[in-house]
Amino acid sequence: MSSPEPTVLIIGAGTFGTSTAYHLSHQYKDPSRITIFDRWDPKAPLQDKQAAAIDTNRIIRTDYESSMYCDLANEAIHPWFWNIAVQGHFQKTGWVVLDKQGGEFAAKVKQCFIKRGGDYTRDVDREELESKHGVLKGLCKGELGTGYFNPEAGWCDAESATTSFLKVAINNGVKRVTGEITELLLDAKKSRIVGAKTSSGQMFYADKIVLAAGAWTSALLSPMEDLLNISEKDRIERQITAVGRLSAYYSLSESETQSLIDENMPIVVIGGFVDIIPPSQPNRTLKINDLKTEVINTITTSSGKKITAPRLASQSHVPEKLKTQGLSVISKAIPDFTSKNSPARWRICYDAVTPTEDWLLTRHPHPSLSNLTVATGGSFHSYKFLPVAGKYISKVIKGERLSEEMEKAWRWKSEQELKRSGGLEFGAKQGRERVELGGYDGNVAKL
């Protein structure tokens, strides 16, 4: 008689958690042995949710300097078109990437495409974009180098796509629990992680745990690290940092929205400054992400440890001084539009960022946590992998081998390994300013 399938708790229903639930639900004979936790009720208003994977939109593209991530993105982009779970959420607008003067991202992406068998991009410049799309008038004059257009890229409605993908897993039998996990549980001998506890006091137990909590990973693991006396150099905070980025949302009229749709406006990425995501009629929102300004929220735990985690305030609450800094970046990128329009709302989007911008997808190295799979490190560029990430996470859960390249990129890294380049979002890091959030609103948080 075969052994029963191991029970699994998935903590976090974002990109990695949802994808894991989806893939395991197709692999398990009895998917009811899988439970996924989501802090947010599906019916809760979008603006009240604090998560990276449920925003108005997320960019879908295959463009990477890294051949491994380029291959993965190509694997993922086909389901965005054909998988019924996410079909209809993807808008194929294409995207334009404009490097800063001296930037190499565009050239290296083209080299990667050629190595894969074909470069389907075409060169484009600032003047061409301005002549076609009035909203881009004055685009970052004097600071742009070469650029290209990739017609295969686009964006998706992240909230609806994530919900749709998770619904498939639930329909297959996966249990979904609305609740916030506040504590991981060890057995009496501190030899094995056995489950998790919610803020309401409910206990859930399983054979295997998947921690897919994104920017909240350190906050959940830190107490466990204290219990096990894990040294500073081996703690999760050395592997990831909880980082926030600013998004500004400009409301458009129905006619303004339709005009941009009729112009076939693509996503526009200005290296080191912003990315601009065009609207659809349902959302009528021009979203501009500030790629230059990054914030961290350092908190002090009860044991006196310094870790990074999102603050408890709503992500839509952005300090005025931070808005001013964000506007200075955005206005420099598209001065004409921003001189006539103001954001209707702002958001601080948090993600777990690794020093190399690779995923952290591995079993925890501590012997007492060997049944804990850490799936985090999205680094602001991983939502596009929603259809396929869980395929690889499930292999780690089961103890199956990944390719040598993947294992090297996604493992728990040594100090030396953390210094190398990896799956960088837009190539070399260009002048990002990571600042302490408390300096903007005067708050010092404690856990």
TrEMBL record:
SUPFAM superfamilies associated with the record: FAD/NAD(P)-binding domain
Gene Ontology molecular function terms on file: flavin adenine dinucleotide binding; saccharopine oxidase activity; sarcosine oxidase activity
Known cofactor(s): FAD
Keywords assigned: FAD, Flavoprotein, Oxidoreductase
Signal peptide (residue range): none
Domain FAD dependent oxidoreductase positions: 8-394
Domain of life: Eukaryota
Family named by the database record: Belongs to the MSOX/MTOX family.
Name recorded for this polypeptide: FAD dependent oxidoreductase
Organism encoding this protein: Paraphoma chrysanthemicola
